[in-house]
Amino acid sequence: MRKCDVCGKTPMAGYQYSHSHRKSIKKWQPNLKHIKAIVNGTPMRINVCTKCLRSGRVKRAI
């Protein structure tokens, strides 16, 4: 499932409007990266969105 393991961000759905205002259903996916991070003192591979990576909520394992 496309979900951030840190903040819980999931895909969002809504309407996309064309120039003539015809609407179609669209899905926006979170920008996820599969990284190796420190979780509870041990390195693990987790799915993290780029917003959590930039804000420093995740400590990367080197």
Explain what the structure shows.
The protein has one helix at 50-55, and strands spanning 12-17, 23-28, 32-39, 42-49. It has 62 residues and is mostly beta strands. The protein has one domain (12-55). A two-stranded antiparallel ribbon has the order 1-2. Strands 3-4 form a two-stranded antiparallel ribbon. A hairpin with a 2-residue loop joins strand 3 (32-39) and strand 4 (42-49). The longest helix is centred in the C-terminal third of the chain and has 6 residues, at 50-55. It is elongated and about 55 Å long. The model has no long low-confidence stretch (mean pLDDT 95).
Largest sheet: 2 strands, antiparallel
Low-pLDDT runs of 5+ residues are none
Distance between the termini: 26 Å
Residue share in β-strands: over 45%
**Mean of residue pLDDT values:** 95
Number of continuous helical runs: 1
Q: What would you report as the Rg, rounded to the nearest angstrom?
A: 16 Å
Indicate how many domains the architecture comprises: 1
Q: Give, in spatial order, the strands making up the sheet with the most strands.
A: 1-2
The SS-based structural class is mainly beta
The shape is elongated
Can you count the beta strands?
4
Instruction: Classify the helix fraction into a percent range.
Output: under 10%
Order of helices and strands: EEEEH
